[in-house]
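Lab notebook, bench 4. Still working through the backlog of constructs that have no structural model yet. Next entry is a single chain of 146 residues. Request: give me the structure tokens for it.
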Amino acid sequence: MRCFHHGKYFSGIFGLFVFLVLVAGTSCVIFAFEPPMNPARTAGWLLGGAFLLAVAWRAIPVAASAEEFIEVDDDGIHVLDPDGEEEDFLRWEQIAYVTDRPGFQALEFYDRQGRRCLVVDYFLERFEDFEFLVFRHVGEVRRRMI
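Model written out:
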């Protein structure tokens, strides 16, 4: 069984990043309605705020999973909480395909019904080893690049 987890300082630093992006996005939306009202200025602040809030929204699950451990064995992928309790288990047979999303820096695992059942980000320590073990079990045929 191989164990993978995020770096020692990753969760704190990434959590701070998400918080700052949320504050910046919210501030942009608030500044958009400060007088004097100018349509171009308001639109710029709203678009900037919407972008920052979208980035933060996408990053929240990564920050929430930063404390988890991932174990890979011959049965499948085990997701463990910081105390070692199993939160999720994905059997190799359940995986229909794996989508590699370099833009979002994540591997997304989909089951036979086409539902996304697990997302593992590139920030995992020894991610290359994890990726090698995954595709050794599921095969390159089931890999999709986006």
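Notes after review: The beta strands are 2-5, 69-72, 76-80, 86-91, 95-101, 106-111, 116-121, 143-145. The radius of gyration is 19 Å. Flag for follow-up if needed.
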